[in-house]
Amino acid sequence: MIRLTGQLICQTMQQAETVAQHLPDHIRLSRAEVGCISFDVQPTDNPLVWQVDETFTDQAAFDLHQQRTRASAWWTATAAITREFKVLDV
Fold it and tell me: In angstroms, rounded to a whole number, what is the distance separating the alpha carbons of residues 51 and 84?
């Protein structure tokens, strides 16, 4: 299994609003992917920071998720937002 954990860190409230606007569709599409075991993005106590936790069956499923994401409206809208993630092969 491949597990990604970390944070999406906005610099402004406008970025946080962009995340909130695009997140429901991003979660829906990600959870529908073959090999997605879990996909959660939750706000933290800091309104500029989101906790991200993803689990995929294997590296191939995770790679396909990354490819789909890079070609999505989510990526276009949030590309400038800082991502601090760790990817673990568990």
Answer: 10
Query: Span 2-89: which CATH code?
Result: 3.30.70.100
User: Where along the chain do its domains lie?
Assistant: 2-89
CA–CA gap between residue 5 and residue 85 (Å, rounded): 6
pLDDT for the residue numbered 48: 98
Does residue 35 come out as left (phi exceeding 0), alpha (psi in the -120 to 50 range) or beta? Answer: left
Q: How confident is the model over 10-64, as pLDDT tens digits? A: 999 999 999 999 999 999 999 999 999 999 999 999 999 999 999 999 999 999 9
Angle at 4 between CA 81 and CA 17, to 5 degrees: 30
Q: How far is 3 from 57, CA to CA, in rounded Å?
A: 9
Give burial (CB, 10 Å; 0-12/13-18/19+) of 73: exposed
